[in-house]
């Protein structure tokens, strides 16, 4: 194993060419290693006995660690989301100069959704302007938890070069060799520090007292230990402190956040943070069982295995309600259960499916059933990954992360199960088992992809499919009018990387057009009822004959519907509502009066409602003006069996086609009367800048870019303190060691002037294209921003006229 460097592009986990060229992490990478390195078996046995007697910490015993390095850029949020859900613990790496950045808060909150125990590591303390104490306070304010300082930075002479760390738990100092690889460490106990570094020793004792006091507020066992030690903070043993921190971490609510210090570039503090992973973070066996779902029922994996899970039936009873039934114990039937959380196409090994095993064992050559795709395939090749290198293994046990090489079907988010039978399809309800589903956020940027020649078109689409298996947050659509293939993503950088992967790595002969914005269309008027008939005699693509009547109108999400029949079927998606009415039929599709006609025997009311809904959704995907998807629309579809159903001639597909034609007709009627409008995405933007640049940034956003300032940097700390008050995190009570520049008044004044601020604003997405380069030029390269979709807003006036002229000019 070698030591890599981000600046040199030689890190083990950043192995893609684009990652090494840009110096950032783009895709998550998995690596498995032992820490500490394995000793001889006799030594391991002696260490194990010492650990069990608490004579040595857990970190003295070698543990197998499955590490996943995730991106930090906002464009790759989905990459972080799909990795977080399979983790048992996390280390949040912070920049000691920038502090807690806006994207850090986003990822921290995502980890909170899965209740993942987290520790914080303040990195880059060797850089000019690094502020460990200030970052600790920001952790309390912005991450809404109590920082438990477990290490204090060691600066030569109190304000010189960063040379090591002081361990608050073990009351010792670790000084690293200047310019070394981090392996040569000079250790000092507390008496030695008191003689040679009295200021550091005094800070270390303050930190120990603060740590014990903080743990005593959240852990009753620590209170008892403190009293037994006659209220002497220094008499608490390291084993007692580590056990108390673990108890505070296990719930995953981040009430207490252990904080460590270091400078990875100079290999300072790396071994202690790895020891902290072993000492503090939970093993897979100590974590709650994974959430599972069967149909609409949810529970825990252990409940399913033990027969304590109750699931709703897939078919309703005569009363129309779904029947609940106990699921029989599946522990003898289920041999292994895993989640495919990432798919990567490797030029040498083929398609690599990264899996996390949650129960049992996945063996080599095991028959795996994909519950999402309803397909089976064999795991012919199991690997344990070391970034882009691999080692074959015979099996993967619960809690382990590995790779299935050469999978033909598995995608990100698929659940894979192995049963103790040789049947291709497992018994119910295992065939419907879902592990931890994940929501894919909607894309906001898109660009056209065109093959260089007609003969390259099939190859391009094949490689686009490979790209989609790797990254489900990318979307591929086909423009029916122009025939163009459109690729959509989360941001400019996201699409640039997708282009690099497609053209550079997958060698597709294609060209990506200019990055554009995904606008929406909406209606401002209500249409009259539009009836359209579909007849396969006039169209050969779909067989059957059916009709539908559709009415389209603007939808206000805040207004409740009270005008429609109680039994009307409703479906909502992307602020659109589809209502399917059958006023002449009851819930079973039977006529309500003598004049009404019932549905034919091969169709049920539920099937007709679903067919009509799918037809309306297909129509909503393309607006009447510029073929953008429609939003804030209500479509009302009417079923009249006497007029719309033609016995055995009417099929599910023909009903869908009729509903689509009727809905499109209603949209075109409103558009021709001038009742349509364009909508643009408006983003929530968090811009992190320093005080010196804040004024120009605010003016640029509010004046040049038509944005609305939500809160200024002056209110940021007050807002964060108010947010953290729910947990009673009093910033004044947070212990944080002094930073080197705090010793001088001028340095303290400089800190006040250049204090980081966050400007929150709502800005149209069009104005944010290319904003990162502009922001960096305005802030000397120090400004960063994150953004997410807030809403789609109707365009009016000059902005709409300019966009229409641009769209028509480009057409």
Automatic annotation (TrEMBL):
| Residues that hold GTP according to the record | 69-73, 123-126
* InterPro entries (alphabetical): EF-G-like_DII (IPR053905), EFG2 (IPR030851), EFG_II (IPR041095), EFG_III (IPR009022), EFG_III/V (IPR035647), EFG_V (IPR035649), EFG_V-like (IPR000640), G_TR_CS (IPR031157)
Broad class of the protein's primary localization: mitochondrion
Per the record's keyword annotation, is Cell membrane included, yes or no?
no
Q: Where in the cell is it found?
A: Mitochondrion
TM segment ranges:
none
Stated name of the protein: Ribosome-releasing factor 2, mitochondrial
Domain (Tr-type G) ranges:
1-285
Protein function: Mitochondrial GTPase that mediates the disassembly of ribosomes from messenger RNA at the termination of mitochondrial protein biosynthesis. Not involved in the GTP-dependent ribosomal translocation step during translation elongation. Catalyzes the GTP-dependent ribosomal translocation step during translation elongation. During this step, the ribosome changes from the pre-translocational (PRE) to the post-translocational (POST) state as the newly formed A-site-bound peptidyl-tRNA and P-site-bound deacylated tRNA move to the P and E sites, respectively. Catalyzes the coordinated movement of the two tRNA molecules, the mRNA and conformational changes in the ribosome.
Q: Keywords, A to Z?
A: GTP-binding, Mitochondrion, Nucleotide-binding, Protein biosynthesis
Question: Which family is it part of?
Answer: Belongs to the TRAFAC class translation factor GTPase superfamily. Classic translation factor GTPase family. EF-G/EF-2 subfamily.
CDD domains in the record: EFG_III, EFG_mtEFG_C
Q: From which residue to which does any coiled coil extend? A: none
């Amino acid at each position: 194993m070698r030591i890599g460097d981000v600046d040199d592009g030689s890190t083990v986990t950043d192995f893609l060419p684009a990652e090494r060229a840009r110096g950032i992490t783009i895709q998550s990478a998995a690596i498995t290693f032992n820490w500490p390195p394995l000793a001889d078996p006799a030594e391991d046995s002696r260490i194990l006995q010492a650990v069990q007697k608490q004579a040595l910490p857990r970190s003295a015993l070698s543990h197998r660690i499955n590490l996943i390095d995730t991106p930090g850029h906002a464009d790759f949020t989905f990459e972080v989301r799909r990795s977080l859900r399979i983790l048992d613990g996390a280390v949040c790496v912070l920049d000691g100069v920038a502090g807690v950045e806006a994207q850090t808060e986003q990822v921290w909150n995502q980890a909170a959704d899965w209740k993942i125990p987290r520790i914080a590591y303040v990195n880059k303390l060797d850089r000019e302007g690094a502020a460990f104490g200030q970052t600790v306070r920001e952790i309390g304010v912005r991450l809404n938890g109590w920082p438990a300082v477990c290490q204090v930075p060691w600066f030569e002479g109190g304000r010189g070069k960063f040379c090591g760390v002081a361990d608050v738990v073990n009351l010792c100092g670790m000084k690293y060799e200047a310019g070394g690889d981090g392996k040569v460490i000079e250790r000092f106990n507390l008496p030695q520090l008191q003689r040679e570094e009295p200021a550091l020793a005094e800070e270390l004792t303050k930190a120990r007292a603060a740590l014990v006091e903080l743990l005593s507020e959240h852990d009753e066992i620590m209170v008892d230990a403190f009293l037994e030690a006659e209220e002497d903070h220094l008499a608490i043993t390291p084993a007692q402190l580590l056990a108390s921190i673990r108890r505070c971490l296990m719930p995953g609510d981040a009430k207490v956040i252990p904080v460590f210090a270091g400078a990875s570039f100079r290999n300072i503090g790396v071994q202690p943070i790895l020891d902290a992973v072993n000492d503090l973070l939970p093993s897979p066996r100590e974590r709650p069982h994974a959430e599972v779902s069967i149909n609409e029922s949810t529970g825990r994996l252990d409940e399913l295995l033990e027969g304590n899970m109750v699931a709703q039936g897939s078919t309703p009873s005569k009363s129309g309600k779904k029947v609940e039934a106990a699921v029989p114990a599946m522990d003898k039937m289920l041999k292994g259960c895993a989640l495919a959380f990432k798919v990567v196409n490797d030029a040498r090994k083929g398609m690599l499916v990264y899996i996390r095993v949650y129960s049992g064992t996945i063996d080599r050559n095991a028959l795996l059933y994909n519950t999402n795709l309803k397909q089976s395939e064999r795991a012919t090749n199991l690997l344990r990954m070391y970034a882009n290198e691999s080692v074959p293994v015979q099996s993967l046990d619960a809690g382990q992360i590995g790779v299935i090489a050469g999978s033909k079907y598995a995608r990100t988010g698929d659940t894979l199960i192995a049963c103790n039978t040789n049947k291709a399809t497992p018994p119910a309800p295992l065939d419907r088992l879902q592990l931890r589903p994940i929501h894919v956020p909607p894309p906001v940027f898109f660009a056209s992809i065109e093959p260089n020649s007609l003969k390259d078109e099939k190859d391009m689409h094949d490689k686009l499919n490979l790209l989609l298996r790797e990254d489900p947050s990318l979307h591929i659509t086909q423009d029916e009018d122009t025939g163009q293939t459109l690729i959509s993503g989360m941001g400019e950088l996201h699409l640039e990387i997708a282009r690099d992967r497609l053209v550079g790595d997958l060698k597709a002969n294609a060209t990506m057009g200019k990055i554009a914005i995904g606008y929406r269309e909406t209606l401002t008027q209500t249409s009259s009822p539009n009836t359209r008939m579909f007849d396969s005699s006039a169209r050969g693509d779909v067989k059957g004959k059916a009709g539908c009547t559709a009415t389209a109108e603007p939808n206000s999400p805040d207004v409740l519907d009270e005008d429609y029949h109680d039994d009307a079927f409703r479906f909502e998606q992307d602020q659109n509502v589809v209502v399917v009415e059958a006023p002449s039929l009851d819930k079973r599709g039977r006529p309500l009066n003598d004049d009404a006609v019932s549905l034919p025997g091969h169709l049920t009311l539920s099937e007709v409602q679903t067919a009509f809904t799918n037809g309306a959704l297909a129509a909503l995907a393309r607006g009447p003006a510029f073929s953008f998807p429609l939003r804030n629309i209500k479509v009302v579809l009417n079923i009249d069996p006497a007029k719309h159903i033609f016995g055995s001639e009417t099929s599910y597909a023909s009903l869908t086609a009729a509903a689509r034609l009727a809905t499109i007709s209603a949209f075109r009627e409103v558009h021709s009367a001038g009742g349509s409008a364009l909508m643009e995405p408006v983003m929530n933007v968090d811009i992190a800048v320093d005080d010196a640049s804040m004024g120009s940034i605010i003016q640029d956003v509010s004046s040049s870019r038509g944005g609305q300032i939500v809160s200024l940097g002056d209110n940021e700390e007050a807002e964060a303190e108010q947010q953290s008050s729910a947990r009673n995190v009093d910033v004044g009570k947070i212990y944080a060691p002094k930073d080197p520049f705090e010793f001088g008044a001028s340095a303290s004044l400089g800190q006040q002037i250049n204090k980081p601020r966050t400007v929150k604003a709502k800005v149209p997405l069009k104005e944010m294209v290319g904003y990162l380069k502009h922001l960096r030029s305005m802030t000397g390269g120090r400004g960063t921003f994150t953004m997410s979709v807030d809403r789609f807003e109707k365009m009016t006036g000059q902005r709409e006229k300019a966009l229409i002229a641009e769209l028509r000019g480009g057409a």
